[in-house]
């Protein structure tokens, strides 16, 4: 798992405030945030151009995503997310590795296909999830309603899914 926050936090002992991103390793290589994911490697191991890091930098933080998923489960029951992710999302996402693992996969997976591979989703579940995203992207919320998602839940769910779509999740 990429822990973006640990590297993006200002490291006052090793890095200057103008270059708060510390490349992993023993050497003290610090770069400005503007050089993250800019197409030119600045860290010795190209870590600053790692696709998972670059994807995670565009997405909501993992903790925020995990909290959102957990809130949905707490409010609507342990099988609520089965409506989105398929049968493997039963029992509070345990068959998929739990809330934290799903949040990490949503944050770090560049595309929906990558997400499916990370969580070993069946093709039918992945196709269903794509349909949900396409419906949200096109503004056709009738699919979400047909899945049993209430009007009061639509805005939050749409906001969350829109964030993923806007960062290339469907590409």
UniProtKB/TrEMBL annotation:
Keywords (A to Z) from UniProt: Disulfide bond
Protein's name in the database: Prohormone-4
InterPro entries xref list: IDLSRF-like_peptide (IPR053103), LDL_receptor-like_sf (IPR036055), LDLR_class-A_CS (IPR023415), LDrepeatLR_classA_rpt (IPR002172)
Superkingdom of the organism of origin: Eukaryota
Claim: Membrane is one of the keywords in the record: no
Record CDD domains: LDLa
Keyword Transcription: no
Parts forming coiled coils: none
């Amino acid at each position: 798992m990429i822990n973006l926050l640990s590297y993006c936090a200002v490291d006052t002992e090793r890095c200057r405030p103008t270059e708060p991103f510390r490349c992993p390793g023993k050497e003290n290589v610090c770069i400005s945030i503007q050089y993250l994911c800019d197409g030119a490697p600045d860290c010795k191991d190209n870590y600053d151009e790692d696709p998972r890091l670059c994807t995670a930098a565009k997405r909501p933080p993992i903790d925020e995503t995990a909290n959102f998923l957990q809130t949905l489960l707490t409010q609507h029951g342990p099988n609520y997310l089965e409506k989105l992710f398929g049968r493997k999302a039963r029992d509070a996402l345990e068959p998929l590795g739990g809330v934290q693992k799903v949040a990490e996969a949503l944050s770090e997976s560049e595309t929906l296909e990558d997400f499916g591979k990370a969580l070993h989703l069946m093709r039918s579940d992945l196709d269903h999830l794509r349909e949900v995203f396409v419906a949200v992207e096109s503004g056709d919320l009738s699919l979400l309603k047909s899945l049993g998602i209430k009007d009061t839940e639509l805005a939050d769910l749409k906001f969350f899914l829109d964030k993923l779509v806007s960062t290339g999740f469907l590409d």
